[in-house]
TrEMBL record, chain A:
It holds the Pfam family BCA_ABC_TP_C. Keywords: ATP-binding, Nucleotide-binding, Transport. This is Urea transport system ATP-binding protein. Residues 2-242 form the ABC transporter domain. One of its GO terms (molecular function) is ATP binding. CDD domains: ABC_Mj1267_LivG_branched (cd03219). Transmembrane segments: none annotated.
Length: 252, 339
């Protein structure tokens, strides 16, 4: 589904990401963890076209993504949820979802757009899933942080992207909310490939039904099931603060 | 009020026709303000060329009026004769016909905005940089229109009209007709804009203002949307300019400079950005104040304008309309409490 090779990005001499190889299958749910500054979000930025890497290749369904524009990549089937909820704060929740809805998105179709009943059904269905049915008339900017997260996930869901890049979905959520989000993501992974970045270990444990990748200082430290990763000494080291030793090992 | 009180006042002799003509002009400026609101208020693009597009519309109409007002036997406008021009320049020719002139007055600014917008938006230039570039273009056009070689009357502009479509412009009933047309046009443009901002397209514009990147990642080609609204805004302004022309009887390059565009932006900011009502109210209120204060205290206007702008920025981020809404909410709140 997604194959990454020799990816290198640096910002002003600082290597942010140096990924030899990374790949995920169709309908896989992959969790990426790693300390701050490990390059997790940068990785997503590259896949969805926001950041340009110095070298490397990112292939999605066999097509090279690097060098394409955001809209093209999105059209190929890559959806992105940002770390900081990026929604249309001046519009109602319903309008946010309406704009997220998949379909022709050129100026003329939008101009002459008439709401079709199946579109409405689809919006209601997704709103139901993310628990925003009672907030449809609210202005999105006035939602709580957790609900903003859900709204953005809903926008990505409505696009029906084959690959969904979900950056810190549970940030700012209560345990109950996080658990609901976790269930939602597991559910999504039945029909879509999903990559999730997360810090909260409890949440990771819930959603890590498949592999977990650990990024440290721009490099892939290890990959494995949640149990394997949790018991990995190197991972423990870098999470418990002795990041230097982990880095040395990564270099060796 | 404008559709009833003013006409009744006029026909009963209580309101002089000149007041009506003055308001007719305000309506035209309000139409231009609606264009500013679409571009700036809804889409968040700060453009300094609205006055330019307004003037392009006015010039288009002015060219028609110049040609239709030529005395019997004269083939060229006087200013061309003085400049030793022997033949009517090609771009003047279609303006001899009223319907062509109408279409071109809107189409030319639209195409101009389209080309300009395409090249600027494609490079993802926005915010302050966009404002600066448009400002430079407005200045360049101002200089171009000011030159005699451009064949648009130079700094004197186009003026000295007696007839419009065969009607005598000094006639009160003609003046009233123009007032009525301006009001109708304002109503139609408002209705059009209202439908526009409530369509999916309109919502996309607000979405671009709120989060352009989210739009891109949601498969929208933001550039196309920006260009589209820029063109629509320009054409709306041109409609205002076209109607403005017969009522003022003169158009000069002085009306298209950057300052004029900034004033339009201040109208919208004061009235209430991102609300169509705000644009209209802002344009009407500020122009009325302009007329009043320049009569009473001629030198004070700029201070008052500046002061109002500062107050808006500091205390009324949503303008007059926002203030009224807030007061309504407070009143409602009080009623709920007492009930």
């Amino acid at each position: 589904m997604l194959e990454v090779k020799d990816l290198k990005v640096s910002f002003g001499g600082l290597t942010a990401l140096n990924l030899d190889t990374f790949s995920i299958r169709k309908n896989e749910l992959r969790v990426i963890i790693g300390p701050n500054g490990a390059g997790k979000s940068t990785f997503m930025d590259i896949v969805c076209g926001k950041t340009k890497p110095q070298q490397g290749s990112v292939k999605f369904k066999g097509l090279e993504l690097l060098g394409r524009k955001e809209v093209e990549i999105a059209k190929l089937g890559v959806g992105r949820k940002f770390q900081k909820p990026s929604i249309f704060s001046g519009l109602t929740v319903y309008d946010n979802l309406l704009l997220g809805l998949d379909g022709p998105k050129d100026v003329f179709t939008s101009y002459f757009y008439k709401l079709a009943s199946y579109d409405k059904d689809r919006i209601m269905e997704v709103a139901e899933k993310v628990g925003l049915v009672n907030d449809l008339t609210m202005i999105a900017g006035s939602l709580s942080h957790g609900k903003k997260q859900w709204l953005e996930i809903a926008i990505v869901m409505l696009q029906d992207s084959e690959l969904m890049l979900i950056d810190e979905p549970a940030a700012g959520m209560s345990d109950v909310e996080a658990e609901k989000t976790g269930n939602l993501l597991c559910d999504l992974s039945k029909k879509h490939s999903v990559i999730v970045i997360e810090h909260d270990m409890k949440f990771v444990e819930q959603i890590a039904i498949e592999k977990v990748s650990v990024l440290v200082r721009g490099q892939l430290l290890t990959e494995g099931t949640f149990q394997e990763v949790r018991n990995n000494q190197e991972v423990i080291d870098c999470y418990l603060g002795s990041a230097n030793s982990a880095q040395q090992k990564a270099h060796s | 009020m404008f559709a009833l009180v003013f006409p009744i006042g006029y026909f009963t002799g209580l309101i002089p026709i000149n007041t009506l003509t003055l308001w007719g002009r305000y309506f035209c400026l309000a139409i231009a303000a609606l264009g500013v609101d679409l571009i700036w208020g809804y889409t968040g693009i700060l453009s300094m060329t609205q006055a330019l597009f307004f003037c392009m519309g006015a010039y288009g109409m002015g060219m028609y009026m110049t040609l239709s007002n030529l005395p019997e036997g004269q083939l060229l406008p006087s200013f061309m004769v003085w400049n030793q021009v022997e033949e009517l320049p090609f771009f003047w020719v279609p303006f001899d016909n009223f319907s062509y002139a109408l279409v071109l007055s809107v189409l030319v600014p639209g195409v101009f905005a389209g080309i300009m917008g395409y090249f600027i938006f494609r490079k993802r230039i926005k915010g302050v940089y966009f404002a600066i570039i448009t400002q430079a273009i407005a200045l360049a056009m101002f200089l171009l229109f000011s030159r005699n070689e451009t064949m648009l009357g130079g700094t004197n502009g186009l003026t000295d009209f007696k007839y419009f479509l065969g009607f005598d412009l000094r006639d009160n009933s003609v003046k009233f007709g123009l007032y009525a047309w301006s009001l109708i046009a304002l109503g139609l443009v408002y209705w059009y804009c209202h439908n526009l901002v409530n369509s999916k397209f309109g919502k996309s514009l607000v979405a671009i203002r709120d989060s352009e990147s989210r739009m891109r990642f949601t498969k929208y080609k933001v550039t196309h949307y920006n260009v589209a609204i820029f063109v629509i805004g320009a054409m709306v302004a041109a409609v205002g300019g076209m109607l403005y022309m017969p009522q003022t009887g003169i158009i000069t390059p002085g009306r298209m400079d950057v300052q004029a565009s900034i004033e339009m932006i201040i109208w919208v900011a004061l009235g209430g950005r991102g609300k169509l009502k705000g644009a209209v109210i802002g344009a009407l209120v500020l122009n009325l104040m302009y007329s009043v204060f320049t009569t009473v205290l001629p030198s004070s206007w700029l201070y008052i304008l500046g002061g109002l702008f500062v107050i808006t920025v500091l205390y009324l981020p949503k303008g007059i309309v926002g203030m009224v809404d807030q007061m309504k909410e407070k009143l409602n709140g009080m009623f709920v409490k007492t009930a």
